[in-house]
Design brief:
Elements lengths: L2 H11 L4 H8 L3 H8 L7 H11 L10
Helix pairs in contact: 2-3, 2-4
């Protein structure tokens, strides 16, 4: 499972809106959706901003 898929599962399981995360991470909802679906790579800065928005340590999504 990719990092994007893990983030997607996490936010869906907690009922967090993608629009909220996109706004907090200063990216478009389309870009976020593409990242979570594996259609676009997540750069390190954006990954940091997404994790900050959902208040999760960056390392969590790299664990198996």
């Amino acid at each position: 499972m990719s990092v994007g898929e893990k983030i997607k599962d996490y936010i869906n399981s907690r009922g967090i809106k993608q629009a909220f995360i996109a706004e907090q991470a200063n990216i478009s909802t389309v870009a976020l959706s593409n990242m979570l679906n594996g259609n676009q790579k997540i750069d390190a800065i954006t990954y940091h901003d997404i994790c900050k928005a959902i208040q999760v340590p960056m390392e969590q999504f790299f664990e198996d």
